Amino acid sequence: MTAPSPPLSELAAFGLHERVLAIIRDLPRGTALDLGAGEGAFAQRLHALGYDVVACDVDADLYKAREIPFRAGNINDGIPFDDASMDLVVFIEVLEHLKNPWRAVEEMRRVLRPGGHLLLTTPNTGNLRQRMHYLLHGRFYGFGHPVIRSPLEHIHPFSLSELTMMMNENGFHNVTFLFDRPFRLKRYLPTNRFTGLTTIVQAQRNG
Q1: Residue 115 belongs to a domain with what CATH number?
Q2: Residue 155 CA from chain centroid, whole number
Q3: Of 102, 107, 166, 190, which residue is least crowded by CB atoms under 10 Å?
Q4: DSSP 60-100
Q5: How far apart are CA 81 and CA 79, in angstroms?
Q6: CA atoms within a 13 Å half-sphere pointing along the CA-CB vector of 203
Q7: Residues facing 71 on adjacent strands
Q8: Domain that residue 20 falls in
Q9: Are strands 52-57 and 86-92 parallel, antiparallel or unpaired?
Q10: C-beta separation of 34 from 48 below 8 A
C-alpha cells in the first residue's frame, strides 16, 4: 500500500486551483493529465474528483504525490503519452515559461481524445495593472528580463487574440476565457478581463 503524501504546495496564485476545479467539476470524468504538475497538488484534487489521473513534469525530483502515477517529460520535446489517450489536460501557469508555446499546444492536442477538454492558465496581460505597467516601462509586469535566468522565467506574454488564434490553429473549438485574481480582492470588484490576474482558457479538441 502506498504511503500517503505529505502536504503539497500549490505552485500557483492562491485560490487558482479552486477556480479551475470549479470548471472541471462540470466536465465528464475520464483520464486526466496534469501537465507541469509540480509537486502534484492539483493531480491529487483531480483524483479526488474521480478522474484517472497521471502527472507529468520536467522535474521528477519536485514531484511528491506518491499515490498518483508520474512520468517525467519535457513539453518542448514531446511528452511520453499516446495519441488520443486523455479526456482532460490541465496546464496551470506553465505556458508563459516556454520557448515554444505553440508546440506545447500542438502536443496537448495530440494526446487529447476528440472532444477532450483542455484547461490552461497564464498571466492576464490585458488587465489594467499590466496595461499601465507597459505604458510606463515598455514591458509587462513579470516579463521582459533580457536573459532566461531559470526555468521559472516568464518568457512569453499572451493577449486574448493570440490565445484564440493558438487554439483555433491547433484544432480546438469552444474556446472560452475566464479570469481569476487574488482572493482578498474578489469581494470588492467584479473579476473580468480588466481586473483579473490570471487568464483561464477552456477549449475542446475538434472531433
Answers
A1: 3.40.50.150
A2: 15
A3: 190
A4: GGG---TTS-EEE-BTTTB-S--TT-EEEEEEES-GGG-S-
A5: 6
A6: 26
A7: 56
A8: 16-205
A9: unpaired
A10: no
Tens of pLDDT, residues 166-190? 999 999 999 999 999 765 566 677 8
Give the integer Cα–Cα distance in Å for 92 and 94.
6
Average pLDDT over residues 108-124: 98
- 81 inside domain: yes
What span, in angstroms and rounded, lies between the C-alpha atoms of 48 and 43? 9
What is the count of structural domains for the chain?
1
pTM of the model: 0.91
48 exposed, middle or buried (CB, 10 Å; 0-12, 13-18, 19+)?
exposed
**DSSP run (H or E) holding 160:** helix 160-169
- Residue 140, all three cell numbers: 509587462
